[in-house]
Amino acid sequence: MAKGVNKVLLLGNVGKDPEIRATAGGMTVASFSLATADRAKDSTGNWVDKTEWHNLVAFQRTAEVVRDYVKKGTQLFIEGKIQTRSWDDKESGQKKYRTEILVNELTLLGGKPGGGGGEGYSRSNAGASNTASFDQRAPVQDEYAQSTQITDDDIPF
User: Fold this and answer.
1) Residue 112's domain spans which residues?
2) Could you tell me which of 47, 50, 20 has the C-alpha nearest to residue 32?
3) What is the model's pTM?
4) pLDDT bracket for residue 84 (50, 70, 90)
């Protein structure tokens, strides 16, 4: 069987301040939501925006960048892959699922906070204006999956 492709590209805004934690092994993990919007005309001809929410997880250095530079409202360009985790709910015994985007690359978009404009922080694109890219290939996921305590409040539906 041929190798499949699992690649996601997202451009959107962070929904709330990221949650940062460390695993028992000391790995930094950032969890946050990203809203993307699509615009289409409805049956009456009016433009209607439809917002889709995505759960994102970043590891190691990328999680540290999220911790230091990302907050509610930050515009990001994300490259990653989709992963669905499952677990048994401790209270009900039901199988629960959560689909997440594992962030491989993150680009901060827009000017400095406070409307100052100018150049943004750039790590990999030395001459780039208003962007900063951070690459996180092959994140260590097993330790994260084993250390995450998920409750019904974590599920967005």
Assistant:
1) 8-36+49-136
2) 20
3) 0.68
4) very high
